[in-house]
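Trying the structure run again after the queue cleared.
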Amino acid sequence: MTEVAGDRRARIEAAIRERLAADHVEVLDESHLHAGHAGAASGGGHFRATVVSSVFEGKNPVARQRLVYTALAEEMATDIHALSLKTFTPDQWKKA
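Done. Tokens:
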């Protein structure tokens, strides 16, 4: 992973943590798996994220993903081409 890619991953992780008051965030940069993909040509990366936040309480999976996409609106326009998400409440995370 290059320094730029690592910085981008860290920025995305920090943005999720801050904007969703997340208890746990793990972002993996999987861009190298998509080399040659049309999205890679635009500079946007492919990421997989696990997010644990009490903000997700009472929300269905689609609503949770919308919250993450809204929190990352700026990054979605610049750094992210594709984002795969797993979202959990703190109680769900403890049981997982």
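The CA atoms of residues 17 and 90 lie 14 Å apart. Worth checking whether this holds up in the mutant runs.
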